[in-house]
Amino acid sequence: MREAEWEPEEECATVKAAQAGDLRAFDRLAAHYRPMAVLTARRLLQRDQAEDVAQMALLSAYKALPKLRDPERFGPWFAAIVRHQAARMLSRDRSRQEEPLVDHVDRLILKGAPSIASKGEGPDPISNIERLKPEVREVALLYYLDGCPVASIAETLGLSETTVKWRLHVARKTLRDCVA
């Protein structure tokens, strides 16, 4: 189901049905949230690992679904499960990552902020991604690298759209200041 067709009331009813044991309802939730789960995990992991994390997170969510108190908060609750699973995989297998964060940042800068990358002289902005606070880096990578819309990032991370936009502003300013 496309995101534009998913109404909040329909989502809440689907979560409640899944909590009551309706497997088709959970399948709908999984189909809707799986792409965001993969994108969220991709901020830390390779594509194949992110796919694995998304699958593990769906399984964990299914098992824990009866404990979810507020069906209207399924998105942020599920996103927290995804982030936890991704962090666990990263800590277990840090040395096996094929593509370091620096490569992600290189693509972030070239794709999302070409004026920063084209400055030419001065320090390499790619190495300065570590200057971003983790919450700012997370939003920037989801937006620029994975192409997530602001509204989806806000829903997934349990933030307001204004907060997401502010964090993107901070990321751009920090990266610009690194090369100025």
Number of strands: 0
Question: What is the CATH top level name of the largest domain?
Answer: Mainly Alpha
CATH superfamily of the largest domain: RNA polymerase sigma factor, region 2, helix turn helix motif
* Tally of separate domains: 2
Number of helices: 9
Principal-axis shape: globular
CATH architecture of the largest domain: Orthogonal Bundle
Q: Major β-sheet, in short?
A: none
Backbone structural class: mainly alpha
Strand content: under 5%
The CATH topology of the largest domain, please?
Answer: Rna Polymerase Sigma Factor, Chain: A
The H/E string reads HHHHHHHHH
The first-to-last residue Cα distance is: 45 Å
Task: Outline the fold blueprint.
Layout: H1 8-19, H2 23-42, H3 47-64, H4 74-92, H5 101-112, H6 114-117, H7 134-145, H8 150-157, H9 161-179
Helix pairs in contact: 1-2, 2-3, 2-4, 3-4, 5-7, 7-9, 8-9
Describe this structure in words.
- The protein has helices at about 10-20, 25-40, 45-65, 75-90, 100-110, 115, 135-145, 150-155, 160-180.
- The chain is globular.
- It is built from nine helices and no strands.
- Mean pLDDT is about 75; it is low at about 95-100 and about 115-125.
- By secondary structure, it is an all-alpha fold.
- The protein folds into two domains: about 5-95, Rna Polymerase Sigma Factor, Chain: A; about 100-180, Winged helix-like DNA-binding domain superfamily/Winged helix DNA-binding domain (Arc Repressor Mutant, subunit A).
